Amino acid sequence: MIPTIKKKVVVSLALALLIIVGAATVGCQPEPVAEKKELVLEEGVIVSLPSPRHTGEMSVEEAIFHRQSTRHFPDEPLSLEEISQLLWSAGGKTIDGVTGPTRAFPSAGGLYPFEIYLVAGNVTGLADGIYRFQWRNHSLKMIKKGDFRQELMVASLRQRFVEQAPVSIVWVGDFDRVKRVYGTRGVVRYISMDVGGAGQNVHLQAEALGLGTVIVGAFHDGPVQRILGTELVPLYIMPVGRRG
Ligand SMILES: Cc1cc2nc3c(=O)[nH]c(=O)nc-3n(C[C@H](O)[C@H](O)[C@H](O)COP(=O)(O)O)c2cc1C
């Protein structure tokens, strides 16, 4: 009888010791390091973006009042939700209009003669690369893999903040589409007017998200076209990030 009780006590003690040692070991484990998780993407793959919000905390008056150009960005990633919101404001779909889905900016004759690219180098949940924004289904199509921010900075007359920012949104214009309908007058006037509205949207949306941006119009067209892989004419580059 006595040996059985002794045996039970020894087993219980051993178990208790195991639990204590186990708990202490778990307690000593280093905190898991927050990794930048990225989708492994192949060129041509489509990434669905989270649905954009149509309401927010900041009034349009406050956003206009506080808007200013930001030219310094800390090395901090943006989230896919923020990218979704920024691209929606850049040229996403809004309420259905009379002739079809309306978009976030007005455009002469409803031509919307742009493609919108995202040069992504630091977005949580998104592989670095060049993407084309597909506004109809609010998604991104990967064009090229890799971080092209440094090349874009060089093409932008070495404006340093282009490389610092986690992303840049780039508009390229289809001049032929406008020329066919409105001739030279449309090319000279309407494309710039259209892109102005889209750029202002991104400025105000960035403000409402607590982010910063700046319109960059000083760049070499050819190198920007090569980086994006398009023959359309680059119009605006807008680096976006947290404010430095
Ligand atoms: C068409 C256009 C092109 C611009 N190009 C550049 C540029 O290449 N680099 C830059 O730092 N700022 C550029 N800017 C930003 C202006 O310098 C800025 O908006 C202006 O100084 C007013 O400052 P604010 O935006 O803070 O009010 C550009 C703005 C526009 C509208």
Structural features, described:
- This protein has 244 residues and is an alpha+beta fold.
- The protein has one domain (37-242): NADH Oxidase (3-Layer(aba) Sandwich).
- 41% of the residues lie in helices and 22% in strands.
- It is built from seven helices and eleven strands.
- It has helices at residues 2-28, 60-66, 80-91, 149-155, 161-164, 175-208, 221-228, and strands at 46-48, 78-79, 93-96, 101-103, 114-120, 123-124, 129-134, 139-145, 167-173, 211-213, 233-242.
- The protein has a seven-stranded antiparallel β-sheet with strand order 1-8-7-5-9-11-10. The chain has a two-stranded parallel sheet with strand order 2-6.
- A hairpin with a 4-residue loop joins strand 7 (129-134) and strand 8.
- Helix 2 packs across helix 6 (175-208) and helix 3 (80-91) packs across helix 6 (175-208).
- The protein is globular, with a radius of gyration of 25 Å.
- Residues 1-5 and 13-37 have low confidence and may be disordered.
SSE inventory with pairings:
Blueprint: H1 2-28, E1 46-48, H2 60-66, E2 78-79, H3 80-91, E3 93-96, E4 101-103, E5 114-120, E6 123-124, E7 129-134, E8 139-145, H4 149-155, H5 161-164, E9 167-173, H6 175-208, E10 211-213, H7 221-228, E11 233-242
Parallel strand pairs: 2-6
Antiparallel strand pairs: 1-8, 3-4, 5-7, 5-9, 7-8, 9-11, 10-11
This protein binds flavin mononucleotide (FMN).
Flavin mononucleotide binds at residues 68-69, 71, 159, 214-218.
